[in-house]
Design goal:
The structure holds 2 protein chains of 2 kinds. Chain A is an alpha+beta fold. Chain A contains 7 helices and 22 strands. Chain A folds into 3 domains: 7-217, Rossmann fold; 224-306, Beta Barrel (Elongation Factor Tu (Ef-tu), domain 3), CATH 2.40.30.10; 314-416, Beta Barrel (Elongation Factor Tu (Ef-tu), domain 3), CATH 2.40.30.10. Chain B is 32% helix and 15% strand. Chain B is α/β, with parallel strands linked by helices. Chain B is globular and about 55 Å long. Classes of the chains: A alpha+beta, B alpha/beta.
């Protein structure tokens, strides 16, 4: 048993025509993550549809409607493992509702694979996918230049595309971009290197996925602990036990550390860090732990423990954010919604719509409404103060969702400016 | 309490099992905090035993803030039911058991053919139990790697007042911020171990030294072969004329009804041996063992739409 394997979550962005499903199929197939019964099921379907070869893209079709129509409806999650890492793939369809689905899948991803067709090069949708990956703060981006077999495995063509892409990516806040030439159809540079791309000296796709360093994706310096649940066993054995349960979203905490409880601002010291497996001296993000405190202070779900640092969070009732509208019902400025931020829920109002972003051109347009898939800069007023970091500093404490109280639907995803 | 060195974190690397466990604990605490009347579905099978350990890690030193619930088909393996009762008793947690027989007596389930698997009927008794206790959230041990309909389901899966799942109309689920809100009469199914695979479950059983029913380990058993399946002989399944009873060394990869759960041939008698076997197997977990999934390509999707797990 390997007890040091890490988990990497990634998404694939691209349309069916770019060979996205084939790429995922190839990754699963060549890493021996496809089982015989799955393979025989898709062989039967390929045959039924009159195809001559097994269509690996069928592996990612989940639902009856999708199989009937040959489309992908929603985000699907796939799992595979190599001896070096465990992987979760968030697979999103490449057509309509793209923004909504991609933002959803990207929100938990360490890495995004942006797929393009070597014949077509950098397209509008490539820019859109890349912009969305940067918007959601995906730490690592891989440009997979697919269908190299269709351009005679040309090094020059690959370099042209990479040059154009890097010029575009430089305008966005992307820190770690890798470019790989490959052929998902033939399996070149996906799992195996193949014989056709000898001029390329970088890692094949799977090798990159297995080795890319993800330890620093979590903010390690600014301690943030939203209280999820107050534990009061009230048993004889644990008569006075009062523990604050939650997950450390960023940074670390040790016994004896002075912490502030926000929004009240009261301070105290950490008495114990309790876990089922024994008490800890120090705990780090993203561990789920129980913290007991030196003083008795009135604390409830939604409060946040922080340590003083160079980047203190803001405690605010009005703030600016980038919003991605997810619901078919457009935003109604006259209505109140609910915002859920970490473990706190509050009523909210949209006090201003500053502009809408064109995800294809990156131009800003004035707007007074928001429809599904729109991305906009807005100002939000909340009924009670939230403890906020900007999304760029901390994904966990800079993100929120908006809920429509009437339908209980999740209608928007927000990122604190 | 003893002070342990935080080994996993000393280099700030978090193993995949640590990451999955922390995520699952976080999900269970969200349910406890935001749902009015949750329950944890517990069958005595390996995945639900992992769920119990996660619940212990999430809520100890306190009791669980929800009861355990089992919908019993009364066609379950006796070893699994024994484990169910023992674990619930050892943990001192409340276990509610409701049986398909009750629904059959009430007339809400009409069994067409007594030989057919009873798993599909569980939805009826589950929905009746949800109504009886007014549960607004039921946590279950389903995993996305099990089946392609499950691969598309949210961790917090909204069900309408008929308990139905609408795959085309699911709530977007972003970051780790879960929308737990329902109106009266509606409920949410929550799958805290959505992101675990069969291999993760076995590695966790090994790491946590969890007690699971013996039938998960290789043992000698009387079986008959029907088509591609090996079926265990029991009081519910007897050989038909012409069928031969064999004794094979087998283990169960999943446990459901005795009538529809097939064992796999195996000599793996320890967790490590099972992990070794799992890493080399060429057949999916449910593909190898669940006859109820193989009636059509969409069997699980259809059952889920009707309120199944």
């Amino acid at each position: 048993m390997n007890n040091t394997t890490q988990l990497l979550r990634f998404i694939t962005a691209g349309s069916v025509d770019d060979g996205k499903s084939t790429l995922i199929g190839r990754l699963l197939h060549d890493s021996k993550s496809i089982f015989e019964d799955q393979l025989s099921a898709i062989s039967r379907t390929s045959e039924k549809r009159g195809m001559t070869a097994v269509d690996l893209s069928l592996l990612t079709d989940g639902l009856q409607a999708e199989r009937e129509q040959g489309i992908t409806i929603d985000v699907a999650y796939r799992y595979f493992a190599t001896p070096r890492r465990k992987f979760i793939i968030g697979d999103t369809p490449g057509h309509e509702q793209y923004t909504r689905n991609m933002v959803t899948a990207a929100s938990t991803a360490n890495l995004a694979i942006i797929l393009i067709d070597a014949r077509k090069g950098v397209l509008t949708q490539t820019r859109r996918h890349t912009y969305l990956a940067s918007l959601v703060g995906v730490p690592h981006v891989v440009l997979a230049v697919n269908k190299m077999d269709m351009v005679d495995y040309s090094k020059q063509r690959f370099e042209e595309i990479v040059g154009e892409y890097k010029r575009f990516a430089a305008q966005l806040n992307l820190h770690d971009v890798h470019c790989i030439p490959l052929s998902a159809l033939n399996g070149d540079m996906v799992v195996e290197r193949g014989d056709n791309l000898d001029w390329y000296i970088g890692p094949a796709l799977l090798e990159l996925l297995e080795t890319i360093v993800i330890d620093h994706d979590v903010n390690t310096s600014d301690f943030r602990f939203p209280v999820q649940w107050v534990c009061r066993p009230q048993t004889e054995e644990h008569h006075d036990f009062r523990g604050f349960m939650g997950r450390i979203e960023a940074g670390e905490v040790s016994v004896g550390d002075e912490i502030a409880i926000l929004p009240s601002g009261r301070t105290t010291k950490v008495k114990e860090i309790v876990t089922y497996d024994g008490n800890l001296q120090t705990a780090y993000a993203p561990q789920s732990v129980t913290i007991t405190l030196a003083d008795e202070i009135d604390i409830s779900r939604g409060d946040m423990f922080v340590k003083s640092s160079a980047h203190p969070p803001r405690v605010e009732k009005e703030f600016e954010a980038t919003l991605c509208w997810l619901s078919e019902a457009p935003l109604d400025k006259n209505r109140k919604y609910l915002v859920k931020h970490t473990t706190r829920m509050a009523k909210c109002l949209f006090s201003r719509l500053d502009y809408r972003m064109d995800v294809n051109t990156l131009e800003q347009h004035a707007t007074d409404k928001l429809n599904m898939n729109d991305i906009a800069r807005v100002a939000i007023k909340v009924q009670q103060p939230l403890v906020l970091d900007s999304y760029a500093t901390d994904r966990a404490t800079g993100s929120f969702i908006v809920i429509d109280e009437a339908t209980n639907n999740t209608v928007a995803a927000g990122m604190v400016a | 309490m003893k002070l342990v060195e935080n080994q996993n974190m000393s280099s700030h690397t978090f193993t995949h099992l640590d990451a999955l466990e922390s995520e699952s604990i976080h999900i269970m605490r969200e349910v406890a905090a935001e749902c009015k009347n949750p329950a944890l579905l517990f069958s005595g099978g390996k995945d639900s035993i992992v769920m119990l350990r996660i619940a212990e890690k999430a809520f100890r030193p306190a009791k669980f803030p929800f009861p355990l619930v089992h919908i019993d088909t009364e066609h379950n393996f006796p070893e699994v039911i024994a484990t169910r009762d023992k674990l619930a008793a050892d943990l001192g947690e409340r276990l509610i058991v409701r049986s398909l027989e009750d629904s059959i007596r009430r007339g809400s389930i009409v069994i067409k053919n007594p030989d057919l698997p009873r798993n599909p009927y569980q939805s009826v008794t589950l929905l009746e139990t949800i109504a009886e206790f007014g549960f607004d959230a039921c946590m279950g041990g389903a995993r996305r790697d099990e089946e392609k309909a499950r691969a598309k389901e949210r961790i917090f899966s909204f069900r309408d007042e008929f308990g139905q799942w609408d795959p085309k109309n699911q709530r977007p689920e972003l970051w780790d911020i879960y929308n737990t809100r329902v109106h009266n009469g509606e409920n949410i199914r929550v799958f805290p171990i959505s992101n675990w695979t069969e291999m993760d479950i076995w590695e966790y059983i090994g790491r946590e030294k969890l007690h699971i029913p013996d039938i998960y380990y290789a043992h000698e058993r009387e079986v008959i072969r029907r088509g591609n399946s090996v079926i265990p002989v029991s009081h519910l399944v007897q050989p038909k004329p012409g069928e031969k009873v064999e004794v094979l060394s087998v283990r169960f990869r999943t446990v459901g009804d005795m009538t529809c759960t097939a064992p796999v041939e195996s000599t793996a008698r320890t967790v490590d041996e099972i992990i070794e076997e799992t890493s080399t197997t060429r057949i999916t977990e449910r593909g190898a063992t669940r006859m109820d999934d193989q009636t059509s390509e969409a069997s699980m999707e259809l059952r889920k739409k009707e309120g199944y797990f």
